[in-house]
């Protein structure tokens, strides 16, 4: 009986040792999920972050996910060390993954960004946009205007850049658009004729930039997070930071 | 006797299940997607469509580059779709010969006028032409100083195309300078001797002017580089040759737009004949960083530009 217990214990120890070695041999795993981003240059994003970690003496493999389903399936399979995810997603999945928010993304020290809902003058009420077409870059939040308009209630047309969404609205191909105020002002400066036909129906609540979360079981969380605190737009890190819409991270 | 009756009823139930079209059993519409060939861009369209209509019941037929109306007829008979989406010219022309009633949406089809002006009332779609105003707005965002764009074209190019583009440019305070090139040999001379000055160039999809035999593209690129006039092209493939910027269709977005159009027809019950073909909404922009540095010097900073891709695609 004692022998059986010993064998079992030995098997557990060998198994744990094997897992630890295998994980180490494969390097550390960093996951990325940002529904606000397009997916045009995923390879460059992944290669850029891998290369950045190498400059910090860390062998890490980055996985960039286009959707939450693939992300969550892979968490079970690959046991990542850290993840860089949209802030609202980090909050939404806190109970499931028990992750800790380590760093917050910023864009030139701004920790949040604003989007606006623009429409032509025939829409004066948000409720009138139910079942109407709205052009937007991938918009991760389920509610557009809390309590008034959800993504389920509209017909979203996805584009990769704000300018496409505004032009589509200007040409009356869609009924409204969700864009950043900066993009709208940029268009106004270039093409006032289109911009003047549109107006801001609602300023949407501020959205925090993506955050870095650490998985509780990983022993590598601290070193990876520390490496990310010094990331900047120069060199290899340019693509991953652009993908996240940020210029760096600060301690949360 | 009882056993026979049970067998008889069971047979009828099974037969009924097999024979009833799928659409009749389910309230969910079936979307038939017929594509001309195996093209990555078409897969992007399908991905964009399913992202915008999650859970949509799609059936896909690939014609693999061959017109096969019998195959299409059998496919439509079997799947009984509520709406048909044709990707590519071959898929559209072949489908329209067999389908006269159910709504048909076309996309990725050049010269769409032949369908949109046809008497078939069940057809509409999305054209391949990005509105010139959208092109020039994005070009202006990239290069705010441009005031006059030279556009070399063969005289056979439809005047309406150039005139429409000139009107769009004018709304942005840009003058479009039409430069007719009768013979490809005259390209450089015509650009140099243009009666009106221009500070940038637009390469239009003009098959008579730009093809493998005319060799006009290298001349245009050379002129653009020598005279520091940024060149806007209609496809990413011309960036390798030396164009500064390309604006083409974003195929994933095209799929999303097709989903929107499908909902207008199936949910809002708008007839295709009442929906004129629309231009594509989403664009895919690529900036040549090497050319940008040549034009604008070392001060060029790519982080300032919101484009879909940079060329060349190296990790610094």
Question: What do these coordinates show?
Answer:
The complex is a heterodimer of chains A (252) and B (316). Chain A is of the alpha/beta class and 252 residues long. Helix content of chain A is 39%, strand content 26%. Chain A is built from ten helices and 15 strands. Chain A has helices spanning 2-25, 42-55, 68-78, 87-92, 94-97, 162-170, 181-190, 192-195, 221-229, 238-244; strands at 28-33, 60-65, 82-85, 100-106, 112-113, 115-120, 133-136, 143-145, 149-150, 155-158, 176-180, 198-203, 207-208, 211-214, 248-251. In chain A, helix 2 (42-55) crosses helix 10. The longest helix of chain A has 24 residues, at 2-25. The radius of gyration of chain A is 22 Å and the shape is elongated. Chain B has helices at residues 2-19, 22-25, 40-52, 69-79, 89-98, 113-116, 132-142, 159-171, 187-192, 216-226, 251-266, 289-296, and strands at 30-35, 57-62, 83-87, 104-107, 123-125, 148-153, 175-180, 200-202, 231-233, 245-249, 283-288, 309-311. Chain B has 316 residues and is α/β, with parallel strands linked by helices. In chain B, strand 4, helix 6 and strand 5 form a beta-alpha-beta unit. Chain B is 40% helix and 18% strand. Mean pLDDT of chain B is 90; it is low at 16-25. In chain B, helix 3 crosses helix 11. Chain A binds chain B through residues 38-41, 43-44, 47-48, 51, 133, 135, 155-165, 167-168, 171, 173-174, 183, 186-187, 190-191, 193-194, 233, 235-236, 238-239, 242, and chain B through 48, 51-52, 131, 133-134, 137-138, 140-141, 144, 171-172, 250, 252-253, 256-257, 259-260, 263, 278-279, 281-285, 302-303, 306-310, 313, 315-316.
């Amino acid at each position: 009986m004692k022998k059986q217990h010993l064998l079992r214990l030995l098997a557990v120890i060998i198994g744990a040792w094997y897992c630890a070695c295998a994980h180490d041999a494969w390097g550390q795993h960093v996951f990325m999920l940002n529904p606000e981003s397009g997916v045009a240059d995923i390879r460059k994003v992944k290669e850029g972050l891998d290369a950045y970690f190498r400059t910090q003496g860390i062998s890490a493999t980055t996985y960039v996910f286009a959707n939450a389903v693939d992300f969550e399936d892979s968490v079970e399979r690959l046991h990542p060390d850290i993840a860089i995810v949209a802030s609202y997603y980090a909050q939404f999945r806190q109970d499931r993954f028990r992750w800790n928010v380590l760093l917050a993304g910023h864009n030139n020290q701004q920790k949040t960004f604003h989007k606006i809902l623009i429409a032509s003058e025939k829409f004066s009420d948000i409720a009138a946009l139910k079942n109407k077409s709205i052009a937007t870059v991938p918009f991760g939040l389920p509610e557009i205007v809390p309590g008034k308009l959800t993504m389920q209630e509209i017909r979203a047309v996805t584009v990769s850049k704000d300018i496409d969404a505004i032009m589509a609205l200007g040409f009356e191909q869609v009924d409204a658009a969700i864009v950043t105020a900066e993009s709208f002002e940029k268009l106004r400066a270039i093409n006032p004729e289109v911009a003047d036909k549109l107006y801001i129906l609602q300023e949407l609540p501020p959205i925090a930039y993506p955050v870095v979360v650490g998985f509780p079981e990983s022993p590598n969380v601290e070193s990876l997070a520390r490496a990310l605190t010094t990331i900047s737009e120069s060199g290899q890190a340019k693509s991953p930071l652009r993908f996240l819409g940020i210029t760096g991270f600060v301690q949360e | 006797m009882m056993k026979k009756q049970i067998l008889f009823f069971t047979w009828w139930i099974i037969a009924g299940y097999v024979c009833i079209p799928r659409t009749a059993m389910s309230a969910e519409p079936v979307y038939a997607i017929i594509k001309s060939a195996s093209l990555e861009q078409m897969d992007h369209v399908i991905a964009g469509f399913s992202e915008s209509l999650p859970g949509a019941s799609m059936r896909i037929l690939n014609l693999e580059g061959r017109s096969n109306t019998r195959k299409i007829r059998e496919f439509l008979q079997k799947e009984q779709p509520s709406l048909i989406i044709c990707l590519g010219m071959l898929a559209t022309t072949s489908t329209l010969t067999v389908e006269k009633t159910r709504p048909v949406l076309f996309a990725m089809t050049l010269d769409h006028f032949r369908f949109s002006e046809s008497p078939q009332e069940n057809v509409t779609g999305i054209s391949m032409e990005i509105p010139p105003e959208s092109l020039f707005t994005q070009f202006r965002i990239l290069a705010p100083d441009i005031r006059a764009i030279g556009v070399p074209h063969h005289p056979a190019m439809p005047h309406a195309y150039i005139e429409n583009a000139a009107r769009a440019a004018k709304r942005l305070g840009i003058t479009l300078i039409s430069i007719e090139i009768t013979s490809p040999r005259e390209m450089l001379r015509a650009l140099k001797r243009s009666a009106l000055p221009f500070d940038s160039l637009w390469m239009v999809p003009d098959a008579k002017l730009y093809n493998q035999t005319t060799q006009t593209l290298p001349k245009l690129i050379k002129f653009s580089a020598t005279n520091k006039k940024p060149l806007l092209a209609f496809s990413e493939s011309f960036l390798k040759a030396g164009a500064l910027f390309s604006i083409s269709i974003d195929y994933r977005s095209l799929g999303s737009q097709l989903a929107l159009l499908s909902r207008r027809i199936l949910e809002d019950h708008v007839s295709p004949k009442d929906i004129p073909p629309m231009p594509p909404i989403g664009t895919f922009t690529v900036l040549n960083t090497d050319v940008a540095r040549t034009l604008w010097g070392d001060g060029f900073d790519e982080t300032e530009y919101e484009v879909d891709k940079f060329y060349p695609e190296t990790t610094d």
